[in-house]
Amino acid sequence: MSMQTQRIAEQNASSRPAARKVFVKAFGCQMNVYDGERMVDVLRARGFSPANAPEEADLVILNTCHIREKAAEKVYSELGRLRVLRDRRREEGRDMAIAVAGCVAQAEGEAMLRRAPAIDFIFGPQSIQRLPELIDRLDAGERGMVETDFPAEDKFAKLEQESKAPPAVPPTAFLAVQEGCDKFCTFCVVPYTRGAEYSRPAADIIREAERLVAKGAKEITLLGQNVNAWHGEGLDGETWNLARLLEELARMDGLQRLRFTTSHPNDMDDDLIAAFAENEKLMPYLHLPVQAGSDRILKAMNRRHTAEDYIRLIGRIRAAREDIAISGDFIVGFPGETEAEFADTLALVREVQYAHAYSFRYSPRPGTPAAEMDNQVPEEVKAERLSRLQALLAEQQQAFNRRFLGRRFSLLLTGTGRHEGQLVGRSPWLQAVHVPGAGHAIGEMVEVEVTKAGRNALGARIVA
Ligand code: SAH
Ligand code: SF4
Ligand code: F3S
Q1: Ligand 2 atom with minimal separation from the 303 CA
Q2: Ligand 3 mean position to 359 CA, how many Å?
Q3: For the chain, which residues make up each domain, given as ranges?
Q4: May I ask the CATH class of domain 3-147?
Q5: Given this structure, which CATH class describes domain 408-462?
Q6: I need a surface site. Which of 168, 259, 289, 321 has the fewest CB within 10 A?
Q7: What is the pLDDT of residues 325-349, one digit of tens each?
């Protein structure tokens, strides 16, 4: 585009009906947050600016999650509220469009339109790059569009081409490096909603990281449904692994911290374990879900490793980085899980000692093999097991945090706290840390000493 046509394009964008606003509400995982940011970038190039609330928006996009039934059902109650809001807006003479994106859109497609006719259009996680086209069709008066193909085009490259980057970004940023999953755990919808594993080329990732750092990011978390399975084209044309990509990113001036999530135990290779010892910018935190502690259940889940394999792996990771914070995901009440098998999960948790974890009741998902298994566990049994597991995990999180009392480390200030003058930051171990922040600003790295340790957060004072 020449300077002249670019200027005209920008004028056109800004002279559209009173600069429209978009609100994206993200449910589910960090990938949905990242995708939501990409939607805003793409729409910025079309003259939209971000709204702070649905009430201010001309377009509301629900970026949905299908992982558990509760997550998926939330979308419909949200749609009900939006319809009421839109009716009110129409009475005031201002319209509002409603779109549904993300994994529920992918899984349910057309069927969503029948259940919630208020939806103007639907697009899946692999069709975000189609958003500009969808907006054109909306502006032309079309409704009920559904884009849920897995197109052959490179979503990320197309998005980069179409987007207009934001003027500034927060000190912590997400960067998707991998998408999709080929593992097919028997409980999980992700391989169906996100499609097959895809790794972005290193050059594209580095370019995006440079842009984020230039706009203020100090810490970048690489994202992927199976991020440690990343094996992309390297800068030298060879296939790189994640450790090699992290090594390259660590060379970037201004980028101070690196993280990655979510990893699968079977893709934790030696290089990646060594990176925790060798890569100084890689933070000592690893989210490594195991789901369950019983070998029979792990097999039925198609996780393809045993409890012992996992525990040995954790040992090797701790040998590389002794202070690493280990985090996990757990599912209780998978079909056929007995009390003794659940006790194996508790035993594994006691052995590993988690710094942090997420735990869920098993939720049967349409189209997944486990949903068809005939030995489903009653809800009250799941609830009771979950509360026992969560009590143990809470205890471990509290114990992990307590060990930090009196310790010093560098804190990245990321936001304002609840109290006047208070700032909140991120520790290397991903703990939230509150500090009296007078004289300091978001985005700074400060040296702190821990004065308080709660279950979910630490308190500290700035020492330098
Ligand atoms: N790719 C990641 C996790 C993706 S989903 C991994 O393999 O670990 C995030 C978490 O949701 C999973 O780790 C699992 O603990 C949970 N989850 C997935 N499907 C579920 C289901 N049907 N019911 C309950 N929890 C589920
Ligand atoms: Fe789902 Fe398993 Fe893939 Fe994780 S590894 S996204 S749990 S299928
Ligand atoms: Fe949910 Fe899809 Fe992420 S189902 S957890 S939004 S990959």
Answers
A1: 2
A2: 15
A3: 3-147, 408-462
A4: alpha beta
A5: mainly beta
A6: 168
A7: 999 999 999 999 999 999 999 999 9
